[in-house]
Amino acid sequence: MTAERLAQQGWRRHAPKGFTGLIGPLWSRTEQGILAFGVIAKEVHLNPARLVHGGMLATLLDQVISTAAWQVAGRLPCVTIQLDTQFLSSVKAGDFVEARADVIKKTREMVFARGELTVSTTIVATGNAVLKILQAASGH
Fold it and tell me: Coiled-coil segments, which residues (predicted)?
């Protein structure tokens, strides 16, 4: 997968700040009103077994799930309080890992969501999360 091909498919380079920026470069595109993310796996993402590190995949899942939560929470910040991750298949250098999320339920203070990572048509990891919506500052 190349940057040119991703751009042709509607993906755009996404440069998040902070820790999430370390797993990129990330690619993003809006699908059915929700942001999807993708990463071309590189050497820097590999573990000693020469496969993409599970921590990197869990971070990508957390990113896509928390972004979906942020969107449904009216762009209020959301923090993950639980993330259950299931690794189903390995990811190799050169693979393009796509991340998508669905919100299952939103309450006044919480968001319940799930995410999925795929390489081509293969599901490589899934996750279920609970996120707390941080309320806007009241000015006090």
Answer: none
Report pTM.
0.89
What is the tens place of the pLDDT at every residue in 76-119? 999 999 999 999 999 999 999 999 999 999 999 999 999 999 99
Which phi and psi angles does 59 have, rounded to 5°? -65, -40
Query: In angstroms, rounded to a whole number, what is the distance separating the alpha carbons of residues 27 and 39?
Result: 6
Find residue 123's DSSP bridge partners. 118
Q: What is the SS3 string spanning 34-67?
A: EEEEEEECCHHHECCCCCECHHHHHHHHHHHHHH
Domains of the chain in start order, with CATH, are 3-133 (3.10.129.10)
